[in-house]
Amino acid sequence: MRRILAALWFSIKSAGQNFRRNLGVSLAGVFTMGLILFLVGGALLFTHSVNSILQAQQANASKIKIYLSDSASLASIADFQTRLQHDPRVISVSFESKDQAAKEASQDPDIQQALSTLGSNPLPASLNLNIKQLTDLARFDQMAKSTPIADKTTATDYNPDVINKLHTVINIIEVVGGVIALILFVISLVIIMNTIRTAVYARRTEIEIMKLVGATDWFVRWPFILEGIIGGVLAAVFSGGVVFAGYHVFVQAAQRSLLSLPFDGSYTVTLLILLVVGGVCVGALGSYMGVRRFLSV
Amino acid sequence: MSVAVAERPEVAMQLNLRPVISFHGVSKVYPTGTVALRDVELAVLQGDFCFLVGASGAGKSTLVRLLIREEVASTGRIFVDGQEITRMARRRLPKLRRKFGIVFQDYKLLSKRTVAQNVAFALQVTRPGQRHLREKVEEVLWIVGLEDKVDKYPDELSGGEQQRVAIARALVHRPRIFVADEPTGNLDPDTSWGIVQLLLQINHRGTTVLMATHNREVVDLVRRRVIAIEGGRVIRDEAQGSYLRPGEATL
């Protein structure tokens, strides 16, 4: 225990010393990594914002109206409604009677006139479904068409085209965002590796002596890995701050232009954690790879 | 005594003395094709003091590097303290290296650390949390005669003093074998003599000492075991040898 603590203390102390002694190189590394993390964070936030706008649209879009035949009995309609309510893909189902449909439609004065001229109500009753996944809409459409209680002429009402496009856009944005983040991750790994390599090079005599007197590989490695982690955390904090400031400004600008984009507080916390974890991983991994070459004595 | 038996394995067997270092048919060919050592047979007993002599490029340094496993032998087997080291796993090397105290021609001191810190470093990185660190460091600095330079930096010391710091660092963990590769290479004759005296003193305390050198005066004055290498072969191994065999003009 005493030895472990002493080893830990030695690692922390030499990591701190390294960081300070090569302050220029260290800060340059932190700055570059911070910039990259900033880009990653920005890309993720942007993807998230676009996604949430699209999700909102999707919520509007994932509605389907199933028109009911006038001859359908109330019992069979209620039966069908219960069945839909128990379907896990469905968020909500509401019944709209012929009268409600007429009332709704009467908001348009032309239709109101047409209705009063007719004297009777030609509008069908309907079940209005709100479902979770856009992709399931087609299945519900099929299902409605095969039900005897659905209206024979127009069974359903939804917009398959817009939905497909929206879906494609969401997918593309997610993939592009992911790819950009991955590329940036690799770039920062290479940068950290080279920064640490410079630091390691400055201390090659020390490493040589450590190996010579019989220090273990991990004992040599730890200070550098800690140094990488310190750099990673600093970079994450720095970039996190900039990203949030930017996000705040972006959201305000979006709201001014009447785009419904809420400031997503819980996502910013997730993102900060993500940036710190990313910084730590990149810092540690980069150091590990940077120091590897000098260990083969 | 041990010097004499080193030459006669059967006597060593009878006395139940096992060599602390032994080479069996060791050759080393570098990837470039250079043959640095050829079929070396060698046994060093606990408590021996050996000079390893030969011209530059004869193979002295290769022998030292094989011994501390900085290089791996191409063929043959090397035993240190009863352990075969040629096929030793990488993770076991730290333990092996702790059996050695090693000094080089270029002292390899850390310029940003004081004399005491340089010596303490060896213990801190191999035995973190070592008790009585300060006392141990002071003790070895006293042995090498630098007790009044504890807080100086290497740049403030002479070459001989720097080599003494390196020796103190190599001694602080009480190694079984002390290896010095050209320790006097950068020093004037008087200072060199002082360093050799120190190594003899270390040997006198029971540590096996192996010193690679081409310092003729020193070897001839001390008259201890001499192993001469030429072209990668051991050409001579004498209990009380000199740098050159009588009549030889050069090695």
Mean pLDDT of chain A: 81
Per DSSP, the total helix count of chain A is 10
Shape of chain B: globular
Largest sheet of chain B: 6 strands, mixed
Distance between the termini of chain A: 29 Å
Oligomer: heterodimer
Shape of chain A from CA axes?
Answer: elongated
Please write the string of helix (H) and strand (E) elements of chain B. Answer: HHEEEHEEHEHHHEHEHEE
Treating each run of at least 4 consecutive H or I residues as one helix, how many helices of chain B? 9
The strand line-up of the biggest sheet of chain B is 6-7-8-3-9-10
Beta-strand residue percentage of chain A: 5-15%
Query: What value does the Rg of chain B take, in angstroms?
Result: 18 Å
Mean pLDDT rating of chain B: 88
Could you say which structural class the secondary elements and strand pairing of chain A correspond to?
A: alpha+beta
Strand order of the largest sheet of chain A: 2-3-1-4
| DSSP strand content of chain B | 25-35%
List strands and helices in order, with pairings.
The complex is a heterodimer of chains A (about 300) and B (about 250).
Chain A lengths: L1 H20 L1 H39 L1 E5 L6 H12 L4 E7 L1 H8 L3 H10 L7 E6 L5 H9 L10 E2 L2 H43 L1 H10 L3 H40 L8 H31 L2
Antiparallel strand pairs in A: 1-3, 1-4, 2-3
Chain B lengths: L1 H5 L2 H6 L4 E11 L5 E11 L3 E5 L6 H8 L7 E6 L2 E2 L8 H5 L2 E5 L10 H12 L6 H11 L15 H13 L5 E5 L7 H16 L3 E6 L2 H7 L2 E6 L2 E6 L13
Parallel strand pairs in B: 3-8, 3-9, 6-7, 7-8
Antiparallel strand pairs in B: 1-2, 1-4, 4-5, 9-10
